Amino acid sequence: MSENKEEFKGEDLSKSESTTQKADQTKEKKSIEIDKDNVSLDAKLKELNDKYLRLLAENQNLRKNHDQEKEDILKYGSFTFAQQILSLTDNLDRAFQIFKDDEKFKKDEFKNILNGIEMIEKELLGTLEKNSIKYIDCINKPFDPNLHQAIGEKNSEKEPGTIIEEMQKGYLMHDRLLRPSMVYVSKKSKK
User: Fold this and answer.
1) Which residues contact 139 (CB under 8 A, 6 or more apart)?
2) 153 - beta bridge partners?
3) Among 14, 45, 125, 146, which residue has the least CB neighbours within 10 Å?
4) How far is CA 148 from the centre of its chain?
5) What is the model's pLDDT at position 25?
6) Where are the domains of the chain?
């Protein structure tokens, strides 16, 4: 009987070893599954984090673009109006030049009229400057296609490509070209 007990104990031991092995294998499988789950969760977490960061960056870019557009609207919102007012400015300038150049208006009796015209001219230029509209000074300066529009060339002793005559004034609004100066550019005279 003692042999039976030992056999029985041996069977119990082998069963218990087998059960232990099975339990270890089950734990291993579960551990592998948990590791796989952790890996897939980590990958999902990284993917979600990446998406979040991209959306955050996109949102910041949209906000910057929106702020820039808002600034441009405030800065250049009156651009079309300013372009239209320049023709009025040109006509007033021509009228002022007629009065200034005519000898008849240089007499004492017309001095007040001439002074009034000069005041209007100064006020108009002041209003343009307050609205960031600046005259492009171009006479005796090199031709710049970004600021000037050449009407033609004239023979001159000046360096070729120098602006020698302005037919229509050009203006900038802030840093944008409102209207180019229409000019004649010097070319070397043929000798």
Assistant:
1) 163, 164, 165, 166
2) 185
3) 146
4) 23
5) 66
6) 1-76, 78-131, 132-191
